[in-house]
Amino acid sequence: xxxxxxxxxxxxxxxxxxxxxxxxxxxxxxxxxxxxxxxxxxxxxxxxxxxxxxxxxxxxxxxxxxxxxxxxxxxxxxxxxxxxxxxxxxxxxxxxxxxxxxxxxxx
Amino acid sequence: xxxxxxxxxxxxxxxxxxxxxxxxxxxxxxxxxxxxxxxxxxxxxxxxxxxxxxxxxxxxxxxxxxxxxxxxxxxxxxxxxxxxxxxxxxxxxxxxxxxxxxxxxxxxxxxxxxxxxxxxxxxxx
Lengths: 107, 125
Description:
The structure holds 2 protein chains of 2 kinds. By secondary structure, chain A is mainly beta.
């Protein structure tokens, strides 16, 4: 099974900050990496697929990069609505697996 | 707009079977390119993939749950279902259903979108 490890597990940031979240796979997953945003009490919202392709309607301040085992999600200028928990997920192989999440909190 | 809604008991006794249904509206569950999935999230914890099913009944289960999981599709009612047997307190979680979308020519490029709102299932006597 492929293990997905996110870092940090939480971070504190201010509106306008550039935020970077890292996701590492235990073995290569090519570019088959997705990102989701989850707010308290809500279902995850899909943001990015195939490591760097933005879902329609997702603000362009979100971007993804990486391939192989190392990936990043970047928020170029943090907005109030971006405070949430972010999860990566590999779709390369069964069983599909998620990272443990990164909580972005207000500083 | 595709919408998914989970339904089922919010409380299940230990050792019994958890049964949930996901009703799809705004689109057909019989789309040949779509799969449908279940994901769960224990309170305060991360996400765990349970399994994925096609409209024709092809299934993929998480090996950690495969001995206890059964998924099925009812195309006449545009819904799919999850059964999880022999539940324990460790199965207490919010259960989400979701559509598994993908790039048709690249099957491995798939993702879950949209998701249902989720339903909390507590295992307790």
